[in-house]
Amino acid sequence: MDQTLGTSPIHAAAPGDRAVSARPAVVVWLFVNAAMVAAMIVIGGITRLTESGLSMVEWRPLIGWVPPLGDAEWTRVFELYKLTPQFQQVNGWMDLDAFKTIFFWEYVHRVWGRLIGVVFALPLAVFLITGRIERARLPRLLLLLALGGLQGAIGWWMVTSGLADQAMVSPYRLATHLSMAFLIFGLLIWTALEIRAADHPTFGTADRAVRIGAGHLLALIALTIVAGAFVAGNDAGLDYNTFPLMDGRFVPDGYWDLGFAGLAENIATVQFNHRWIAVTTALLTLGFAIWARGRVPDHMKLPITLLGAAVILQAGIGIATLLAVVPVWLGALHQGGAVVLFGLAVWTRFAVRSPR
Description:
The protein is mainly α and 356 residues long. The chain is 67% helix and 1% strand. β1 (4-5) and β2 form a beta hairpin. It is flat and about 65 Å long.
């Protein structure tokens, strides 16, 4: 016999109903993860700028949550660091107190990465068990989970490149690690916006030219970020600290000294490429923002406007960072600016997408 209250039968919500009603919670969860990945990218930048990334020579994914406790453990990890090329070639002056400083940033970097994994995986499991994930969303969410695990492995693969013969990590591996971080960040934002849009329909469309332009800008901003990764991987920001010329020339001497390998390994080449890809990106993004605002409905104008403002600010920060010879705070601010700019580009491309 059905129990009733008035004339409405009381019944448990169907799994599909639970998944629909859980959309706001899922959106918040995804945005929280995106914010944590954004912070992770900045922490990673600080780790790189302080040359802390090679201070932890062990990969201990299960017990690595706990920092060294006591003098004996600190001495043990410091002795391991003394065997690395970075200590032997660069930091031979370093005592235990100085080592603790660089160890701190790499420790925070790794623990924050593991914390992201927990904050993503545990709620995902709860959402799945309680039927609060729509079936159509599951492949994307499982892909994000897999990419997060892969990113941890890529991070250790990157670190090992600096523990063998050279006192720096491979710029190729660093660029791979940073690119994966931005890919995960972008997918988190897109997925959250997609789920949110299901409950907040909008009206009016952008024309095809705006959609194509927004897509090309997103790709160009991504290319600029990858070019910046090769600057970081070669410490190229510490040279040619003038703008717009490099040693009094537009194209620096030695640009093609290493041939195609120089695109990733030659200091003059990678810095020239990054600075002028960035300038091109800034000009095209600003032009797009001015042009597109007059061709889209009102609800699409906010991300486009913010994108135009952010690219001007980011270009200014980038030039200031170069001229100041990359102080840690400015370098970290520049990396954070790249995260904001990329996030706004993803939002813009999503906002002008084709209607379904």
